[in-house]
Specification:
about 150 residues; Rossmann fold; 6 helices
């Protein structure tokens, strides 16, 4: 299976890295920001560097939308998996158009209030993973998968 793993740096990336027992068994490519934690953690991995910041930056949102088109057409993953944040949305939009399956995992530390990216990616996701039962109140069709950390 060909995976595209997408996460902002910091805690979002840490939560995807924690799933290494699963993703290490598959062909994969990453999308994240070129920051020290990602460069170190993903040494030896195939990485597409996204544009940041993504919050309130229309220019980078447009650039990441173009990056999503190029990346998804060129690498054609079987499934995209993301823990957010904003960098995920353009990839989920283009994946929907290209009929590429998507899985979003809502982050560990948002138990009582949803994330903006989670709310935006929820209707675009083929599967929506929750780390806490309490998150089901915000995402009734989500599946509790347990904690990644």
């Amino acid at each position: 299976m060909k995976l595209l793993l997408i996460a902002s740096t910091g805690g979002h990336l840490t939560q995807l890295l924690a799933l290494s027992d699963w993703w290490s068994q598959h062909q994969r490519r990453w999308v994240t920001f070129r920051k020290a934690d990602a460069v170190g953690a993903l040494a030896g991995e195939h990485v597409t560097w996204a544009y940041h910041p993504t919050t309130r930056n229309v220019g980078n949102a447009i650039r990441n939308l173009g990056l999503a088109v190029v990346t998804l057409v060129r690498h054609r993953p079987d499934v995209i998996v993301s823990t957010g944040a904003g960098v995920a949305l353009p990839f989920f939009v283009i994946a929907r158009l290209l009929r590429i399956r998507t899985v979003y995992i809502e982050v560990f530390d948002r138990i009582e209030q949803s994330t903006l990216t989670g709310r935006l990616c929820y209707p675009l996701s083929d599967a929506f993973g929750l780390q806490w039962e309490d998150q089901r109140a915000m995402y009734p069709d989500g599946v509790v998968i347990g904690r990644t950390l």
